[in-house]
Amino acid sequence: MSRSLTAEGVDHVVLERGRIGERWHSERWRSLHLLTTRAMSALPGLPHDGDPDGFMPASAFASYLSSYARKIDAPVFGGVEVTRVEPTACGYRIATTAGDWQSRALVIATGACDTPFRPTTASLLPASIAQISPATYWEPGQLPPGGVLVVGASSTGVQLAEEIHASGRPVVLSVGDHTRVPRRYRGRDIYAWMEASGMLDETVAESANIDYARRQPSLQVIGRRDNRDIHLGILRDQGIRLVGRFAGIGGGSAAFDGDLEKTTAAAHKRMLRCLDRIDAHIVDHDLQTAAADPAARVPFPAQGDAVTLDLTREGIRSVVWATGYVRRYPWLKAPVLD
Length: 338
Known about the structure:
Blueprint: H1 2-7, E1 14-15, H2 22-26, H3 38-41, H4 58-71, E2 76-77, E3 82-88, E4 91-96, E5 99-103, E6 115-116, E7 130-132, E8 147-151, H5 155-166, E9 171-174, E10 179-180, E11 184-185, E12 188-189, H6 190-196, H7 210-214, E13 219-220, H8 232-238, E14 241-243, E15 246-250, E16 253-256, H9 260-284, E17 307-310, E18 316-321, E19 325-326
Parallel strand pairs: 1-2, 7-18, 8-9, 8-18, 9-14, 10-13
Antiparallel strand pairs: 3-4, 4-5, 6-19, 11-12, 15-16, 16-17
C-alpha cells in the first residue's frame, strides 16, 4: 500500500506498533516456513534471492519485509500503537502511544491473523494443563513433559502435531474442517496451479455461497525443500491419534464428536474439485505436463466414534489451540464495519 501511495504522490505514513513484520519476528514458531514458494511470496519490485520454488523461513521473510521497506523508502513509524480511531469533520483522528494524528483517509492493514481464537470452554481446563496458541508456541521444548492435545487440523495444526510428536511426546489431534491437497501436482506446486487456473482470483461476487466461501479452511500443506505432503494419513501412520471435532470441556475431560468420517470425506471432495479444475485447465490450454499421479486421488477413510478423554488419565499435560484467528477492532470507533 505504501509503495502504491508513493507512486501516486499521496502523502502518507505507516504506523507500526512493533518492528516491521513484527508477527513474523515474534509470533511464528522456530521451524515455520512460508506455505507459498519464493516466486509467489515476493512483493512488487523486489524478487527473492534463492530457489524460486523453495520456501522461506519465517525469520527470513521478516528480514525481507524490512528490506522492502528500505527499498521503497516507506515512511514507517515503528513502536507506535494505535489506541483509538474516530471520525472527524475532515477525516479521522488517530490516537497513538506517540501522540495524535489527523488524516483525510485511513487504511487498516492489520491483517487476518490478529487475535488467536480460543473456545470459551478452554477456561474450564484444569490449571495443571498448559494452554498455548500458535502465536506463542516456539518449539516443543517449551511444553511440559507428557502428552499434548492439538485442536485444529488445518496447515498449522498438522505441522505442530507432527513436530511435537517427533519430539517424543504422545499427540492427540482433534480434526475439524480441513482441505487436503498434494504439495505438488503434475510437476508444479499446488498454489502455482491454483493461480494459473484462476482459483486464486475468484471474488466473493463469483461465489454461489458467500458464507461457505468465507469459511473455507486453509490447505493442509507444509513448506519444505523436499516438497513432501502432509495429511492425516501420514500423521496417523506416525503414531498420532486422531479424534473428531472438539466439542467441549467438562470435569477435566475433553469431548470430541464422532465426525471424522464426515470431515475427511468432505476434505477429499474438496481436493478432487481442486484437482479436476487443474486438469481441465491443462486440457483447455493444451499444456504439456507430467501425468497425474493416481495416488494423489486416493481417499483417506478415517473413522471414529464420539469420545470423551479424561486428560489426566491420558497423560495430556498441554493443549495447543490451532483453531485459527479472529479479527477484533476495539480501537476502531468509526462506523465502517457491518
